Amino acid sequence: MFKTNDYWEEEFYEYDEKNLDSIYFDNCTFVKCDFSKATFYSCKFTECTFVNCDLSLSLLKFCTFNDVTFTNSKLIGVSWSNCIEPFDIKFDSSNISQNSFHLMDLRAMKFVNCLIKDTGFEECNLERAVFDNCDLELTSFINNSLKKSNFETSRNYLIDPKHNDIEKAQFSLPEALSFLSLLPIKIK
Question: Residue 108 in 3-state DSSP?
């Protein structure tokens, strides 16, 4: 479907391409595209927007996402760890369950109104990241920097302060009581 390797200010509607190799997208919009189970190899997305798209079970190899927004999209089972910098994504009202973020620089990332169930954040820099009204059920945070990150409006998180740097991170009650469940104590 994609005829060239360079697109600028284009809109793609209901595309369902499954193999994208070395394509550069600048300031493009993707609407209702089905990239589920697609392979993206060495693609670059700069200032792009994905609206109502499905990228579930997509394979991302050596891709760049710079100033990219996913809105009302489904991205289940995606591993972002093989992407290269810059990596700057905003997830808005999307399902990013069963995703993997490993050894990534996610400073100041924004997750807004998202379902982030059973996702792994391991050894990431999440300083100043914002989790605004997100459901983080079964999501694991292991050896991350969460300094100044904001979880005030999110729920179902379980973050072990012994295995994450939570200095000046923001939480709210009653969700912050989840920290107590990690202590060797009984609460009655």
Answer: coil
Which pLDDT score, from 0 to 100, does residue 20 have? 97
CA 159 to chain centre: 17
Could you list the beta-strand ranges (E) of the chain.
6-8, 11-13, 19-21, 24-26, 29-31, 39-41, 44-46, 49-51, 59-61, 64-71, 87-92, 100-102, 110-112, 120-122, 130-132, 140-142
CA dist., res. 141 & res. 138, Å (int): 10
pLDDT-derived band of residue 185, with 50, 70 and 90 as boundaries? confident
In 3D space, the residue among 8, 47, 52, 46 whose CA is nearest the CA of residue 30 turns out to be: 52
